[in-house]
Amino acid sequence: MPDDIARPPDPAEPRPRGGHCVVLGASIAGLFAARVLSDAFDRVTVVDRDALPETDENRRGVPQGRHAHAILPAGTRGLQQLFPGLLEEFEADGVPVVREPVEMHFAPGGHLLCQEGRYADPTPTYQPTRPRLEGQVRRRVGALPGVEIIDRCEAAGLTGTPDRTRVTGVRLVRRGDGAERELAADLVVDATGRGGRTTRWLSDLGYEPPREDRIAVDIKYVSRNLRLAPGALGRRKVVIVGAAPGRPTGATLLQHGADHWMLTLIGYGGHHPPTDPGEFLEFAKPVMPSDVFEALCAAEPLDDPVAHRYPASVRRRYERLERFPEGLLVFGDAICSFNPVYGQGMSVAALQADALRECLGKGRDRLSYRFFRAAARRIEVAWQMAVGSDLSLPEVTGPRPLPVRLTNAFFDRVMTAAERDPVVAQEFVKVGSLLSSPLILLHPRTVGRVLLGNLLHPARRD
Ligand SMILES: Cc1cc2nc3c(=O)[nH]c(=O)nc-3n(C[C@H](O)[C@H](O)[C@H](O)COP(=O)(O)OP(=O)(O)OC[C@H]3O[C@@H](n4cnc5c(N)ncnc54)[C@H](O)[C@@H]3O)c2cc1C
Protein backbone atom coordinates (compact mmCIF):
# COMPACT_ATOMS: atom_id res chain seq x y z
CA MET A 1 0.00 0.00 0.00
CA PRO A 2 1.39 3.43 -0.85
CA ASP A 3 1.91 5.75 2.08
CA ASP A 4 -0.86 8.25 2.60
CA ILE A 5 0.76 11.40 3.94
CA ALA A 6 -2.60 12.82 4.93
CA ARG A 7 -2.49 10.47 7.94
CA PRO A 8 -1.52 12.45 11.07
CA PRO A 9 1.63 11.54 13.04
CA ASP A 10 1.44 9.20 15.99
CA PRO A 11 2.49 11.27 19.04
CA ALA A 12 3.27 8.07 20.97
CA GLU A 13 6.01 7.09 18.52
CA PRO A 14 9.49 6.96 20.10
CA ARG A 15 12.15 9.38 18.84
CA PRO A 16 14.90 7.21 17.44
CA ARG A 17 18.49 8.30 16.84
CA GLY A 18 20.73 6.57 14.41
CA GLY A 19 20.64 5.40 10.84
CA HIS A 20 22.02 6.90 7.67
CA CYS A 21 20.77 9.96 5.85
CA VAL A 22 21.87 11.08 2.38
CA VAL A 23 21.54 14.75 1.43
CA LEU A 24 21.68 15.50 -2.29
CA GLY A 25 23.21 18.91 -2.96
CA ALA A 26 25.96 20.58 -0.92
CA SER A 27 24.86 24.15 -1.43
CA ILE A 28 23.38 26.28 1.34
CA ALA A 29 20.11 24.37 1.79
CA GLY A 30 21.75 20.93 1.69
CA LEU A 31 24.36 22.03 4.24
CA PHE A 32 21.73 23.53 6.56
CA ALA A 33 19.72 20.30 6.33
CA ALA A 34 22.83 18.19 6.99
CA ARG A 35 23.62 20.24 10.08
CA VAL A 36 20.19 19.53 11.55
CA LEU A 37 20.15 15.88 10.46
CA SER A 38 23.54 15.27 12.08
CA ASP A 39 21.78 15.64 15.45
CA ALA A 40 19.33 12.86 14.63
CA PHE A 41 21.25 10.39 12.44
CA ASP A 42 24.51 8.53 13.15
CA ARG A 43 25.73 9.10 9.61
CA VAL A 44 24.95 11.89 7.17
CA THR A 45 26.40 11.75 3.65
CA VAL A 46 26.18 14.92 1.58
CA VAL A 47 26.59 14.39 -2.17
CA ASP A 48 27.22 17.02 -4.83
CA ARG A 49 27.93 16.69 -8.52
CA ASP A 50 30.36 19.63 -8.49
CA ALA A 51 34.02 19.52 -7.55
CA LEU A 52 33.79 21.37 -4.23
CA PRO A 53 36.66 23.88 -3.91
CA GLU A 54 39.04 23.98 -0.96
CA THR A 55 39.02 27.75 -1.05
CA ASP A 56 36.06 30.13 -1.10
CA GLU A 57 35.55 30.38 -4.83
CA ASN A 58 32.63 30.20 -7.20
CA ARG A 59 31.61 26.89 -8.72
CA ARG A 60 29.54 25.71 -11.66
CA GLY A 61 26.57 24.32 -9.72
CA VAL A 62 25.98 27.65 -7.95
CA PRO A 63 26.18 30.24 -10.75
CA GLN A 64 24.23 32.69 -8.58
CA GLY A 65 27.32 32.91 -6.35
CA ARG A 66 28.74 35.48 -8.78
CA HIS A 67 25.89 37.87 -7.94
CA ALA A 68 24.90 39.91 -4.90
CA HIS A 69 23.76 37.63 -2.09
CA ALA A 70 22.29 39.28 0.98
CA ILE A 71 21.49 37.35 4.15
CA LEU A 72 18.34 38.72 5.73
CA PRO A 73 18.22 38.96 9.54
CA ALA A 74 16.02 35.83 9.65
CA GLY A 75 18.88 33.99 7.93
CA THR A 76 21.38 35.56 10.31
CA ARG A 77 19.42 34.14 13.23
CA GLY A 78 19.41 30.76 11.53
CA LEU A 79 23.18 30.90 11.06
CA GLN A 80 23.62 31.84 14.73
CA GLN A 81 21.64 28.80 15.80
CA LEU A 82 23.09 26.31 13.34
CA PHE A 83 26.72 27.43 13.47
CA PRO A 84 27.54 29.21 16.74
CA GLY A 85 30.61 31.41 16.36
CA LEU A 86 30.47 31.61 12.55
CA LEU A 87 29.23 35.21 12.41
CA GLU A 88 31.76 36.34 15.00
CA GLU A 89 34.46 34.73 12.86
CA PHE A 90 33.21 36.62 9.81
CA GLU A 91 33.35 39.90 11.66
CA ALA A 92 36.84 39.20 13.01
CA ASP A 93 37.91 38.49 9.40
CA GLY A 94 36.71 41.90 8.28
CA VAL A 95 33.33 40.96 6.80
CA PRO A 96 31.20 44.15 6.88
CA VAL A 97 28.31 44.13 9.35
CA VAL A 98 25.30 46.44 9.06
CA ARG A 99 23.99 47.44 12.49
CA GLU A 100 22.46 50.90 11.99
CA PRO A 101 19.93 52.26 9.49
CA VAL A 102 22.48 54.87 8.43
CA GLU A 103 24.65 52.06 7.02
CA MET A 104 21.93 50.91 4.62
CA HIS A 105 20.48 52.81 1.67
CA PHE A 106 17.32 50.84 1.02
CA ALA A 107 14.85 52.06 -1.59
CA PRO A 108 12.18 49.43 -2.33
CA GLY A 109 9.29 50.21 -4.65
CA GLY A 110 10.53 53.75 -5.33
CA HIS A 111 10.71 54.84 -1.67
CA LEU A 112 13.99 55.61 0.08
CA LEU A 113 13.49 54.40 3.65
CA CYS A 114 14.40 56.68 6.52
CA GLN A 115 18.00 56.11 7.66
CA GLU A 116 17.59 57.70 11.08
CA GLY A 117 17.42 56.01 14.46
CA ARG A 118 18.65 52.64 15.66
CA TYR A 119 17.28 49.19 14.91
CA ALA A 120 15.10 48.02 17.80
CA ASP A 121 15.86 44.42 16.81
CA PRO A 122 19.57 43.85 17.36
CA THR A 123 19.96 41.24 14.56
CA PRO A 124 22.62 42.74 12.27
CA THR A 125 23.26 41.89 8.63
CA TYR A 126 26.57 40.24 7.69
CA GLN A 127 27.97 40.61 4.18
CA PRO A 128 30.34 37.77 3.26
CA THR A 129 30.52 36.89 -0.41
CA ARG A 130 28.32 33.96 -1.29
CA PRO A 131 31.29 31.56 -1.94
CA ARG A 132 32.80 32.59 1.38
CA LEU A 133 29.57 31.90 3.25
CA GLU A 134 29.10 28.54 1.57
CA GLY A 135 32.78 27.58 2.03
CA GLN A 136 32.71 28.35 5.76
CA VAL A 137 29.43 26.53 6.27
CA ARG A 138 30.69 23.54 4.27
CA ARG A 139 33.86 23.25 6.35
CA ARG A 140 31.84 23.35 9.56
CA VAL A 141 29.37 20.74 8.36
CA GLY A 142 32.18 18.53 7.03
CA ALA A 143 33.85 18.62 10.46
CA LEU A 144 30.75 17.35 12.29
CA PRO A 145 31.02 13.80 13.66
CA GLY A 146 29.40 11.29 11.33
CA VAL A 147 29.18 13.68 8.37
CA GLU A 148 30.89 12.93 5.05
CA ILE A 149 30.77 15.18 2.00
CA ILE A 150 31.28 13.47 -1.36
CA ASP A 151 31.77 15.65 -4.41
CA ARG A 152 31.86 14.92 -8.16
CA CYS A 153 28.95 12.51 -7.80
CA GLU A 154 25.64 13.04 -9.55
CA ALA A 155 22.39 11.75 -8.08
CA ALA A 156 20.70 9.97 -10.98
CA GLY A 157 17.63 8.46 -9.29
CA LEU A 158 16.15 6.86 -6.21
CA THR A 159 15.96 3.24 -5.15
CA GLY A 160 12.87 1.93 -3.39
CA THR A 161 11.16 -1.09 -1.88
CA PRO A 162 9.45 -3.44 -4.36
CA ASP A 163 6.05 -1.97 -3.47
CA ARG A 164 7.56 1.54 -3.88
CA THR A 165 6.15 2.80 -0.60
CA ARG A 166 9.61 3.61 0.76
CA VAL A 167 12.75 5.13 -0.70
CA THR A 168 15.76 3.03 0.27
CA GLY A 169 18.61 5.04 -1.19
CA VAL A 170 19.98 6.82 -4.20
CA ARG A 171 21.72 5.90 -7.46
CA LEU A 172 24.93 7.86 -7.92
CA VAL A 173 27.05 8.37 -11.02
CA ARG A 174 30.65 9.42 -10.48
CA ARG A 175 31.67 12.28 -12.70
CA GLY A 176 34.73 11.61 -14.81
CA ASP A 177 34.55 7.84 -15.24
CA GLY A 178 30.73 7.44 -15.04
CA ALA A 179 30.99 4.65 -12.43
CA GLU A 180 27.58 3.88 -10.92
CA ARG A 181 26.74 2.79 -7.41
CA GLU A 182 23.82 2.68 -5.03
CA LEU A 183 23.98 4.31 -1.63
CA ALA A 184 21.51 2.90 0.89
CA ALA A 185 19.81 5.37 3.22
CA ASP A 186 17.07 5.54 5.83
CA LEU A 187 16.29 9.04 4.61
CA VAL A 188 17.13 10.82 1.35
CA VAL A 189 16.88 14.62 1.26
CA ASP A 190 16.72 16.29 -2.15
CA ALA A 191 18.40 19.70 -1.90
CA THR A 192 19.49 19.86 -5.55
CA GLY A 193 18.05 23.32 -6.14
CA ARG A 194 15.29 24.77 -8.27
CA GLY A 195 15.69 22.07 -10.95
CA GLY A 196 13.72 19.88 -8.55
CA ARG A 197 14.73 16.35 -9.51
CA THR A 198 12.22 14.80 -7.14
CA THR A 199 9.31 15.70 -9.40
CA ARG A 200 10.70 13.35 -12.09
CA TRP A 201 11.82 10.73 -9.58
CA LEU A 202 8.33 10.63 -8.09
CA SER A 203 6.87 9.86 -11.51
CA ASP A 204 9.43 7.08 -11.96
CA LEU A 205 8.22 5.57 -8.67
CA GLY A 206 4.57 5.81 -9.72
CA TYR A 207 3.60 8.94 -7.74
CA GLU A 208 2.01 12.17 -8.89
CA PRO A 209 4.41 15.15 -8.91
CA PRO A 210 3.37 18.18 -6.84
CA ARG A 211 1.41 21.05 -8.33
CA GLU A 212 3.64 24.01 -9.19
CA ASP A 213 2.77 27.67 -8.62
CA ARG A 214 4.79 29.87 -10.99
CA ILE A 215 5.18 33.60 -11.48
CA ALA A 216 7.10 34.46 -14.65
CA VAL A 217 9.39 37.39 -13.85
CA ASP A 218 12.04 37.11 -16.59
CA ILE A 219 14.74 38.75 -14.49
CA LYS A 220 18.31 39.24 -15.61
CA TYR A 221 21.19 39.89 -13.23
CA VAL A 222 24.50 41.35 -14.39
CA SER A 223 27.25 41.74 -11.77
CA ARG A 224 30.88 42.69 -11.39
CA ASN A 225 33.30 43.19 -8.50
CA LEU A 226 34.72 46.64 -7.94
CA ARG A 227 37.32 48.39 -5.81
CA LEU A 228 35.90 51.59 -4.34
CA ALA A 229 37.95 54.32 -2.75
CA PRO A 230 37.77 53.98 1.07
CA GLY A 231 34.97 56.15 2.46
CA ALA A 232 33.54 56.81 -1.03
CA LEU A 233 30.04 56.02 0.24
CA GLY A 234 30.39 57.49 3.72
CA ARG A 235 28.92 55.11 6.31
CA ARG A 236 26.85 53.14 3.80
CA LYS A 237 27.79 49.46 3.46
CA VAL A 238 24.92 48.43 1.26
CA VAL A 239 22.84 50.22 -1.34
CA ILE A 240 19.68 48.50 -2.56
CA VAL A 241 17.41 50.18 -5.08
CA GLY A 242 14.47 47.98 -5.97
CA ALA A 243 12.33 48.11 -9.07
CA ALA A 244 9.28 50.35 -8.91
CA PRO A 245 6.13 50.75 -10.96
CA GLY A 246 7.30 52.66 -14.05
CA ARG A 247 10.95 51.57 -13.60
CA PRO A 248 11.39 47.77 -13.77
CA THR A 249 15.11 47.95 -13.03
CA GLY A 250 17.15 47.95 -9.85
CA ALA A 251 20.65 47.65 -8.42
CA THR A 252 22.44 46.34 -5.36
CA LEU A 253 25.87 47.44 -4.21
CA LEU A 254 27.24 45.29 -1.39
CA GLN A 255 30.43 45.87 0.53
CA HIS A 256 32.36 42.63 1.03
CA GLY A 257 35.68 43.96 2.35
CA ALA A 258 37.49 47.22 3.16
CA ASP A 259 37.53 48.30 -0.51
CA HIS A 260 35.82 45.31 -2.17
CA TRP A 261 32.25 45.81 -3.39
CA MET A 262 29.93 43.89 -5.68
CA LEU A 263 27.58 45.74 -8.01
CA THR A 264 24.58 43.80 -9.31
CA LEU A 265 22.22 45.35 -11.86
CA ILE A 266 18.75 43.91 -12.29
CA GLY A 267 16.06 44.26 -14.92
CA TYR A 268 12.71 42.63 -15.61
CA GLY A 269 11.71 41.39 -19.09
CA GLY A 270 12.47 43.90 -21.83
CA HIS A 271 14.66 45.95 -19.47
CA HIS A 272 17.61 43.61 -19.00
CA PRO A 273 20.98 45.10 -18.00
CA PRO A 274 23.83 44.86 -20.53
CA THR A 275 27.00 42.81 -20.04
CA ASP A 276 29.09 45.12 -22.17
CA PRO A 277 31.46 46.82 -19.67
CA GLY A 278 30.89 50.25 -21.24
CA GLU A 279 27.11 50.05 -21.17
CA PHE A 280 27.00 48.34 -17.77
CA LEU A 281 27.61 51.52 -15.77
CA GLU A 282 25.27 53.60 -17.91
CA PHE A 283 22.44 51.25 -16.90
CA ALA A 284 23.13 52.10 -13.25
CA LYS A 285 22.91 55.88 -13.82
CA PRO A 286 19.13 56.38 -13.59
CA VAL A 287 18.85 53.73 -10.85
CA MET A 288 21.53 54.63 -8.32
CA PRO A 289 21.65 57.85 -6.25
CA SER A 290 23.93 60.36 -8.00
CA ASP A 291 26.71 60.27 -5.38
CA VAL A 292 26.79 56.47 -5.54
CA PHE A 293 26.91 56.61 -9.33
CA GLU A 294 29.87 58.99 -9.15
CA ALA A 295 31.66 56.60 -6.79
CA LEU A 296 30.96 53.76 -9.22
CA CYS A 297 32.40 55.75 -12.12
CA ALA A 298 35.59 56.29 -10.12
CA ALA A 299 35.81 52.62 -9.03
CA GLU A 300 38.31 50.10 -10.35
CA PRO A 301 36.67 47.06 -11.98
CA LEU A 302 38.07 43.79 -10.65
CA ASP A 303 36.50 41.50 -13.26
CA ASP A 304 34.15 41.48 -16.27
CA PRO A 305 30.38 41.67 -15.88
CA VAL A 306 28.67 38.26 -15.70
CA ALA A 307 24.99 37.54 -16.34
CA HIS A 308 22.34 35.26 -14.88
CA ARG A 309 18.80 34.77 -16.17
CA TYR A 310 16.01 33.90 -13.76
CA PRO A 311 12.77 33.08 -15.59
CA ALA A 312 10.22 32.40 -12.86
CA SER A 313 9.57 31.97 -9.16
CA VAL A 314 8.46 28.38 -8.60
CA ARG A 315 6.71 26.89 -5.57
CA ARG A 316 6.09 23.14 -5.49
CA ARG A 317 3.15 22.24 -3.28
CA TYR A 318 4.51 19.05 -1.68
CA GLU A 319 2.37 19.73 1.38
CA ARG A 320 -0.74 19.15 -0.72
CA LEU A 321 0.23 15.71 -2.07
CA GLU A 322 -1.89 12.83 -0.89
CA ARG A 323 0.70 10.16 -1.63
CA PHE A 324 4.40 10.41 -0.98
CA PRO A 325 6.97 7.66 -0.29
CA GLU A 326 8.51 7.21 3.15
CA GLY A 327 12.21 7.98 3.50
CA LEU A 328 12.27 11.04 1.24
CA LEU A 329 12.23 14.80 1.85
CA VAL A 330 12.69 17.80 -0.41
CA PHE A 331 14.45 20.90 0.89
CA GLY A 332 15.45 24.47 -0.04
CA ASP A 333 14.99 25.87 -3.54
CA ALA A 334 13.80 22.43 -4.67
CA ILE A 335 10.57 23.22 -2.78
CA CYS A 336 10.43 26.94 -3.45
CA SER A 337 12.64 29.19 -5.54
CA PHE A 338 11.92 32.90 -5.02
CA ASN A 339 12.58 35.82 -7.31
CA PRO A 340 16.11 36.54 -6.00
CA VAL A 341 15.70 40.32 -5.87
CA TYR A 342 14.09 39.94 -2.45
CA GLY A 343 17.10 38.04 -1.05
CA GLN A 344 14.95 35.39 0.64
CA GLY A 345 16.28 32.00 -0.53
CA MET A 346 19.01 31.33 2.04
CA SER A 347 16.94 32.73 4.89
CA VAL A 348 13.99 30.55 3.96
CA ALA A 349 16.39 27.58 3.84
CA ALA A 350 17.31 28.48 7.44
CA LEU A 351 13.61 28.60 8.34
CA GLN A 352 13.16 25.18 6.74
CA ALA A 353 16.07 23.90 8.82
CA ASP A 354 14.21 25.13 11.87
CA ALA A 355 11.08 23.30 10.68
CA LEU A 356 13.10 20.12 10.15
CA ARG A 357 14.61 20.32 13.63
CA GLU A 358 11.16 20.79 15.11
CA CYS A 359 9.77 17.80 13.16
CA LEU A 360 12.69 15.50 13.99
CA GLY A 361 12.26 16.44 17.64
CA LYS A 362 8.91 14.69 17.47
CA GLY A 363 10.30 11.51 15.92
CA ARG A 364 10.43 10.18 12.40
CA ASP A 365 6.90 8.89 12.01
CA ARG A 366 5.19 10.61 9.05
CA LEU A 367 8.22 12.89 8.73
CA SER A 368 7.41 14.03 5.18
CA TYR A 369 3.79 14.77 6.12
CA ARG A 370 4.87 16.93 9.02
CA PHE A 371 7.91 18.55 7.41
CA PHE A 372 6.19 19.66 4.20
CA ARG A 373 3.43 21.31 6.21
CA ALA A 374 5.81 22.95 8.67
CA ALA A 375 8.02 24.17 5.80
CA ALA A 376 4.99 25.45 3.86
CA ARG A 377 3.96 27.62 6.80
CA ARG A 378 7.40 29.22 6.85
CA ILE A 379 7.52 29.61 3.06
CA GLU A 380 4.04 31.13 2.80
CA VAL A 381 4.82 34.64 4.07
CA ALA A 382 7.99 34.99 1.99
CA TRP A 383 6.19 33.70 -1.11
CA GLN A 384 3.23 36.04 -0.69
CA MET A 385 5.50 39.03 -0.18
CA ALA A 386 7.66 38.23 -3.22
CA VAL A 387 4.70 37.50 -5.49
CA GLY A 388 2.78 40.53 -4.23
CA SER A 389 5.74 42.85 -4.86
CA ASP A 390 6.29 41.41 -8.33
CA LEU A 391 2.65 41.91 -9.20
CA SER A 392 2.95 45.60 -8.32
CA LEU A 393 5.01 45.88 -11.53
CA PRO A 394 2.98 46.03 -14.75
CA GLU A 395 5.79 44.10 -16.51
CA VAL A 396 4.97 40.96 -14.49
CA THR A 397 1.98 39.04 -15.77
CA GLY A 398 -0.31 37.20 -13.38
CA PRO A 399 -3.72 37.46 -11.76
CA ARG A 400 -4.20 40.49 -9.50
CA PRO A 401 -7.29 39.76 -7.43
CA LEU A 402 -8.62 42.49 -5.13
CA PRO A 403 -6.68 41.32 -2.03
CA VAL A 404 -3.38 41.58 -3.95
CA ARG A 405 -4.25 45.09 -5.19
CA LEU A 406 -5.33 46.20 -1.72
CA THR A 407 -2.23 44.73 -0.07
CA ASN A 408 0.04 46.40 -2.61
CA ALA A 409 -1.73 49.74 -2.13
CA PHE A 410 -1.31 49.40 1.64
CA PHE A 411 2.39 48.46 1.33
CA ASP A 412 2.92 51.50 -0.88
CA ARG A 413 1.44 53.70 1.87
CA VAL A 414 3.64 51.99 4.47
CA MET A 415 6.75 52.65 2.39
CA THR A 416 5.69 56.26 1.84
CA ALA A 417 5.42 56.77 5.61
CA ALA A 418 8.67 54.86 6.11
CA GLU A 419 10.53 57.49 4.09
CA ARG A 420 10.40 59.82 7.13
CA ASP A 421 9.22 57.77 10.06
CA PRO A 422 11.98 55.56 11.52
CA VAL A 423 9.45 53.52 13.49
CA VAL A 424 7.45 52.59 10.40
CA ALA A 425 10.69 52.00 8.47
CA GLN A 426 11.83 49.53 11.12
CA GLU A 427 8.53 47.68 11.15
CA PHE A 428 8.67 47.42 7.36
CA VAL A 429 12.28 46.17 7.41
CA LYS A 430 11.41 43.56 10.06
CA VAL A 431 8.64 42.21 7.82
CA GLY A 432 10.84 42.24 4.71
CA SER A 433 13.61 40.52 6.71
CA LEU A 434 11.20 37.68 7.59
CA LEU A 435 11.62 38.48 11.29
CA SER A 436 7.98 39.50 11.78
CA SER A 437 4.63 38.69 10.27
CA PRO A 438 3.21 41.34 7.90
CA LEU A 439 0.30 41.51 10.36
CA ILE A 440 2.40 43.74 12.63
CA LEU A 441 1.90 46.46 10.03
CA LEU A 442 -1.83 46.33 10.80
CA HIS A 443 -1.30 47.20 14.46
CA PRO A 444 -3.40 50.33 15.15
CA ARG A 445 -0.29 52.23 16.27
CA THR A 446 1.48 51.49 12.99
CA VAL A 447 -1.61 52.14 10.87
CA GLY A 448 -1.98 55.50 12.63
CA ARG A 449 1.61 56.46 11.83
CA VAL A 450 1.16 55.29 8.23
CA LEU A 451 -1.98 57.40 7.80
CA LEU A 452 -0.37 60.44 9.38
CA GLY A 453 2.79 60.04 7.30
CA ASN A 454 0.78 59.88 4.07
CA LEU A 455 -1.34 62.88 5.05
CA LEU A 456 1.61 65.06 5.94
CA HIS A 457 3.91 64.19 3.05
CA PRO A 458 3.22 63.21 -0.54
CA ALA A 459 4.92 60.08 -1.92
CA ARG A 460 8.53 60.60 -2.96
CA ARG A 461 10.19 58.40 -5.61
CA ASP A 462 13.94 57.63 -5.33
C1 LIG B 1 20.85 35.33 -9.15
C2 LIG B 1 20.46 34.87 -7.77
C3 LIG B 1 20.67 35.70 -6.67
C4 LIG B 1 20.29 35.28 -5.41
N1 LIG B 1 20.44 36.13 -4.36
C5 LIG B 1 20.08 35.74 -3.12
C6 LIG B 1 20.23 36.60 -2.01
O1 LIG B 1 20.63 37.76 -2.13
N2 LIG B 1 19.89 36.13 -0.78
C7 LIG B 1 19.41 34.86 -0.61
O2 LIG B 1 19.12 34.47 0.53
N3 LIG B 1 19.24 34.03 -1.64
C8 LIG B 1 19.57 34.42 -2.89
N4 LIG B 1 19.41 33.56 -3.93
C9 LIG B 1 18.87 32.23 -3.68
C10 LIG B 1 19.95 31.32 -3.08
O3 LIG B 1 21.07 31.26 -3.93
C11 LIG B 1 19.39 29.92 -2.81
O4 LIG B 1 18.16 30.03 -2.14
C12 LIG B 1 20.35 29.11 -1.95
O5 LIG B 1 21.52 28.80 -2.65
C13 LIG B 1 19.74 27.79 -1.48
O6 LIG B 1 19.50 27.02 -2.61
P1 LIG B 1 19.68 25.44 -2.62
O7 LIG B 1 20.81 25.04 -1.75
O8 LIG B 1 18.35 24.84 -2.38
O9 LIG B 1 20.03 25.17 -4.16
P2 LIG B 1 21.30 25.62 -4.99
O10 LIG B 1 22.02 26.72 -4.34
O11 LIG B 1 20.82 25.82 -6.38
O12 LIG B 1 22.25 24.35 -4.94
C14 LIG B 1 21.93 23.12 -5.51
C15 LIG B 1 23.11 22.18 -5.30
O13 LIG B 1 22.78 20.89 -5.78
C16 LIG B 1 23.84 20.39 -6.59
N5 LIG B 1 23.20 19.46 -7.53
C17 LIG B 1 22.30 19.74 -8.50
N6 LIG B 1 21.90 18.62 -9.11
C18 LIG B 1 22.55 17.59 -8.53
C19 LIG B 1 22.54 16.18 -8.72
N7 LIG B 1 21.76 15.58 -9.64
N8 LIG B 1 23.34 15.43 -7.92
C20 LIG B 1 24.14 16.01 -6.97
N9 LIG B 1 24.18 17.33 -6.76
C21 LIG B 1 23.39 18.12 -7.52
C22 LIG B 1 24.46 21.62 -7.23
O14 LIG B 1 25.79 21.40 -7.63
C23 LIG B 1 24.37 22.61 -6.05
O15 LIG B 1 25.47 22.48 -5.21
C24 LIG B 1 19.74 33.98 -5.22
C25 LIG B 1 19.54 33.15 -6.31
C26 LIG B 1 19.86 33.59 -7.58
C27 LIG B 1 19.60 32.69 -8.76
Plain-language structure description:
Helices cover 32% and strands 22% of the residues. The model is unreliable at 1-15 (pLDDT under 50). It has three domains: 20-65 and 133-211 and 317-388, FAD/NAD(P)-binding domain (3-Layer(bba) Sandwich); 214-310, D-Amino Acid Oxidase, Chain A, domain 2, CATH 3.30.9.10; 402-456, no CATH class. By secondary structure, the protein is an alpha/beta fold. The chain has helices at residues 28-37, 73-82, 86-92, 130-142, 197-204, 277-284, 290-297, 345-360, 367-391, 402-418, 422-432, 444-456; strands spanning 20-24, 43-47, 97-98, 104-107, 125-126, 147-150, 153-160, 167-174, 180-184, 187-190, 212-227, 238-241, 249-255, 260-267, 300-301, 306-316, 328-330, 336-337. The strands form four sheets. Strands 4, 11, 12, 13, 14, 15, 16 and 18 form an eight-stranded mixed β-sheet that branches. Strands 6-2-1-10-17 form a five-stranded parallel β-sheet. A three-stranded antiparallel β-sheet has the order 7-8-9, with no helix packed on it. The chain is globular, with a radius of gyration of 22 Å. α10 crosses α12. Flavin-adenine dinucleotide (FAD) binds at residues 24-30, 47-50, 61-62, 64, 67-70, 75, 154-155, 191-193, 197, 221, 308, 310, 332-334, 340, 343-347, 349. The site of flavin-adenine dinucleotide (FAD) has 38 residues, from α1, β7, β16 and α8. This is FAD-binding monooxygenase. One of its GO terms (molecular function) is monooxygenase activity. InterPro entries: FAD/NAD-bd_sf (IPR036188). Keywords: Monooxygenase, Oxidoreductase.
